[in-house]
Amino acid sequence: MALTTEDVRLMQGLAQRVAATRPDLVNTDASFGELAWNWGKDHAVHGESRRHRLWFSGAELVAWGWAQLPRRVRLSDGSAKDITGAYLAYQVDPGHAGLLDTASEAGPDAAVQSHVDAWAPTSYTVSSYEGVRRAPGYRGDLHILVEAPDGTMACSAIMWLDDVNETVEFEPVGTHPAYRRRGLARALLVHGLHLALAAGARHATVASMGTPTQARDLYYSVGFRELSRDAPLVKTRAGTANAR
Fold first, then answer.
1. Which position has the higher pLDDT, 95 or 244?
2. Which top-level group of life is the source organism from (predicted)?
């Protein structure tokens, strides 16, 4: 079912409440005007391709998610363009951040399962997680998970705060295969960056192994830019060393 005018009014109401108290937490495409513009220009043609969900506390809207799915759009020159990616716009009332779990709240089993699902096959176990929890710098409030409506921990990330350099590092970041390409990891990163800022970070880093285009595009979408590259050296049978 497509978003209705009343749905948009409720979402704008949440935008107004967040803007009045924490304007820094108003998300992309979640402001009063962006909601009106994006809904008004597209709902007649693409409304059915955009799934949404609203969360309430009593009668008050406290969170929403609005997914733009792959679709074909007609351009003014008569051509057609296929939008192959998916995008999730969302907003959460800062007073109801519990809609996103921390590892401290979700518990060790959920924290481990979220990692196993994202990185299978893996040797990561509850024992591994207990070791991570004892590692210097680990903070349960900076280990965050997104829970799907069916209870699955859809994605997770651990943030490591270096308070001396005012830097936070995301390591690891992973998404359950069934929930990829839905914008959840992006939402997780944005939420994590807000938490890191509140914790005192002024910079953020993340490492991306190899050349995974989707991972790179994800990190670029929230503002990360390439800083450096590692060049592993391997010794060949001929005895020469090559960089790759």
1. 95
2. Bacteria
